Amino acid sequence: MALIVHKYGGTSMGSPERIRNVAKRVAKWARAGHQMVVVPSAMSGETNRLLGLASELAPSAAQTSYYRELDMLAATGEQASSALLAIALQAEGVEAVSYAGWQVPVRTDSSYTKARIESIDDVRVRKDLDAGRVVVITGFQGINPEGHITTLGRGGSDTSAVAVAAALQANECLIYTDVDGVYTTDPRVVPAAKRLNTVSFEEMLEMASLGSKVLQIRSVEFAGKYKVPMRVLSSFTPWDIDLAEESKSGTLITFEEDEKMEKAVVSGIAFNRGEAKISVLGVPDTPGIAAGILGPVADANIEVDVIIQNISKDGKTDFSFTVNQGDYQRALELLRDKVAPALGASEVVGNPNIAKVSIVGIGMRSHVGVASTMFRALSQEGVNIQMISTSEIKTSVVIDEKYLELAVRSLHTAFGLDKSE
Amino acid sequence: MALIVHKYGGTSMGSPERIRNVAKRVAKWARAGHQMVVVPSAMSGETNRLLGLASELAPSAAQTSYYRELDMLAATGEQASSALLAIALQAEGVEAVSYAGWQVPVRTDSSYTKARIESIDDVRVRKDLDAGRVVVITGFQGINPEGHITTLGRGGSDTSAVAVAAALQANECLIYTDVDGVYTTDPRVVPAAKRLNTVSFEEMLEMASLGSKVLQIRSVEFAGKYKVPMRVLSSFTPWDIDLAEESKSGTLITFEEDEKMEKAVVSGIAFNRGEAKISVLGVPDTPGIAAGILGPVADANIEVDVIIQNISKDGKTDFSFTVNQGDYQRALELLRDKVAPALGASEVVGNPNIAKVSIVGIGMRSHVGVASTMFRALSQEGVNIQMISTSEIKTSVVIDEKYLELAVRSLHTAFGLDKSE
């Protein structure tokens, strides 16, 4: 007997029929003798419906003064879907009880709309599990020290599930979603992309942060911190698929560097479309210029991705970074009108259509020449590299957006990912 | 400066536009210097939508084993509408905060789907009021001693509002609804029906229990127990109506017997359609026959209204009672097949189409001849009285359903209610 946490996304909970399928699947696991905790998202569309009502009432509802009430509002979506799932489980003949985050309680900090989980009490849940009940816990939400409801932000239910699994020291946390696992790259770009049976936690972290939408990055961080074995698998297989088969499907995110991982130098190709690049040229190279440039950018609530500072020449340096395309104009004007004059920079230039492509692999730690293989593959295809950024297990390049698909495909081939595992 | 509780029903909260109107009205009261607490119902249709989803998942969701989860589900409707109202208030420039029942907390017993409020803590709410905030509290729900969400049953938001007003010792509890007050009788039956400016708590209690749908009876009981001045008024007046005028509109439910009440012997005519009558004839008159007849009826979950036992003759008595028409066949069969044979009764007869008409008036206490005026008025119209039941401030008669309108109109005239106040 194991203690298993299942997480189901909004699509899997999207209709009574789908909720019934989730209940049948969970019932199958419970009947196999496992202690089951289920963390569902709100029914698909529900969170948007609620927030849509709010913005009809307050067109400026994005202001922080509304955040507390927006959390109070949005949290009802998961409470309703959790109660519905418990009802569906009971209808399947399985004893079940649902809890909102505050009832567990899932304690968070006080950052409304993007709270972080601080601790989860396991006493209440364990009592129900020991009494043979399936416990359904609302994803996405918790309670802050003052007793107000908080939410974890979009995709927070993944994090809820992993945090619950950590608190209960669950044997595995299964994230049921609309894809059947983690792929070497996006199959829509590279049809030869392969599903990975396993991926290391660190690789997953890089892939999640690099735009792979399979898992919310905070959930992966949480899994890493508490060593929660986590599996991504499809919620669209028939619910009555053989349990042994189901429990080996999808992609397992592991913490041990097994043999397979030693062999594959690069596990996947991640990419981000829709970025823009801005360079501040000829900045006097004095201490604090990074802060001088990025401080005002952060104050304007513009998120920055890759940051590169070249070595200085004649006491001057060039400073480049990437932002989302949606923030490009605003960032460019801010830098041209305010920041560059204040710092005495010579020029601000930009490119609104760039993309970032990264190779990710835990094997890069112990293999030399990985980056040069990457650069050679790209140069053979005539793809010009505009920026390079590296970390221990990934190498990212910034290229013109129009070369994105070509770059991803050529790298996928160059690192041998087209072959089956 | 007064402390005022407003309660708004589902229709008043039915759309963003209507919620905005509620916010504007509440803002007007707050700007006039009052401390404001608002108790909204769920947006109209929402509770039915949620429970509809539940019954799709569990066709037998009416079973008690589902009640805990149904409460968890249904409670989200008021949490969402409360958050939306707080958002709308903030958009009007009024500081506001919403609390779910468990946050106040509103403590109830553990009877899921029909819980009773046991106590309400006022510390948290008072702190917000003193800080100048409007406090929005979810109607219809609370938390039981085990920390589970409970609901008070349909119409429970009235009770929530009065209970909150009692806990805060509010100056007045205003129930905004889709009628503009309490009438001498249903204006659809008697066009000459008049709105009462005041009605005593005891009269209101009788009228509520006699089918007047204006207020939930438990809310009136609560108001009586804690002497909460309560006013029923229309939510369809323009929100910017003069506050002095608004605060005198509708019907005030009072606890003092003022001059006006001494004059009006009868305040209103209440009635219930859709009842049925069953008589068990020739029952041996031994102790315990009432229990012998009504026990099995209650066990079959059939609600009984008027109960009459005639004096016994030759050691035998006749026993009559009324039930809802929907329960008539079931009750009749139960009595014929099981109860009558067991008790040795001679016959069970029934009439599936009767109605109950009642005159209600606190003045009846000190006036003689009220009942005979009633009987005379009915006999002049040729209405045959089948049963009579009296209490200190009301007299009810059971008549053939087809005479209902005629009876109500003739009584309305006979007791001088057609004249303006």
UniProtKB/TrEMBL annotation, chains A, B:
This is Aspartokinase. Residues 278-353, 359-421 form the ACT domain. One of its GO terms (molecular function) is aspartate kinase activity. It comes from Comamonas jiangduensis. It catalyses: L-aspartate + ATP = 4-phospho-L-aspartate + ADP. It comes from the Bacteria. Coiled coil: none annotated. Its EC number is 2.7.2.4. Pathway: Amino-acid biosynthesis; L-threonine biosynthesis; L-threonine from L-aspartate: step 1/5; Amino-acid biosynthesis; L-methionine biosynthesis via de novo pathway; L-homoserine from L-aspartate: step 1/3; Amino-acid biosynthesis; L-lysine biosynthesis via DAP pathway; (S)-tetrahydrodipicolinate from L-aspartate: step 1/4. CDD domains: AAK_AKii-LysC-BS, ACT_AK-LysC-DapG-like_2, ACT_AKii-LysC-BS-like_1.
